Amino acid sequence: MTIEPIVYVVDDDQAMVESLSWVIESVGLKAKTYIRAQDFLEQHNPLQPGCLLLDVRMPGMSGPELQSKLSAIGSPCLPIIFISGHGDVPLAVRVMKAGAVDFLTKPFNDQVLLESINKALRLDKLNREKQQESAQAEAKFALLSHREVQVLQGIVAGKQNKVISAELKISLKTVEAHRASVMKKMGVKSVPELVKLVLTNSVQESVQES
């Protein structure tokens, strides 16, 4: 079951909050609003898909401060679109370097806003899919025996079976058996697929550490 994404709006200007909420909901998206960054942070559920429209300057916790706190929580971090009444270029550069998707200066066109939101939602979906794939790869890797991990290390390093056999001081047939077991447990049918699975997921770190 797919969880419907939420577009969160955090802005201390109530009129702006209502206006943004109307635009978002006019295209069938779900909006949830806050006038204090602290309120959003206290209620935030990292498992909920969506994106965040965040004002830069607010009483109490500012937008960039909230961005920093969300980043500290870890992934998946909601994609953030900053909105500001001031064309502060240095600040825009800083928050974009910190991972923001966009920096919009008020007043902005509704279409520009919606395009930015759609981009952020696509990014969030992609990030969550990657995280799920990585978690699945880690779970499969955990099924491997110590010897199978050693053989996997050799495969990823591009070594032939006979080289792995010599290095591990085991027979060629044993290497082949472990190799077949690794392929089965990792759920792949070819060496390129196995290498891609390892190198494109966090499991690569586990392989290197083992």
Tell me what the structure shows.
- The chain is α/β, with parallel strands linked by helices and 210 residues long.
- It is built from ten helices and five strands.
- The chain has a five-stranded parallel sheet with strand order 2-1-3-4-5, sandwiched between helices.
- The protein starts with 5 loop residues before the first strand and ends with a helix.
List key phrases describing it.
10 helices; alpha/beta; 5 strands; 210 residues
Mean pLDDT: 90
Multimeric state: single chain
Strand order, sheet with most strands = 2-1-3-4-5
Order of helices and strands: EHEHEHEHEHHHHHH
Shape type: elongated
Main sheet, how many strands, which sense, barrel?
5 strands, parallel
Roughly how many Å is the radius of gyration?
Answer: 23 Å
Number of strands: 5
Structural class determined from secondary elements:
alpha/beta
| Regions with little confidence, pLDDT below 50 for 5+ residues | none
Q: Which range best describes the helical content: under 10%, 10-25%, 25-40%, 40-55%, 55-70% or over 70%?
A: 55-70%
Beta percentage is 5-15%
Cα(first) to Cα(last) distance is: 36 Å
**Total number of helices:** 10
Summary of the model, kept short:
By secondary structure, the protein is of the alpha/beta class. The protein is built from 10 helices and 5 strands. Strand 4 (80-84), helix 4 (89-97) and strand 5 (102-105) form a beta-alpha-beta unit.
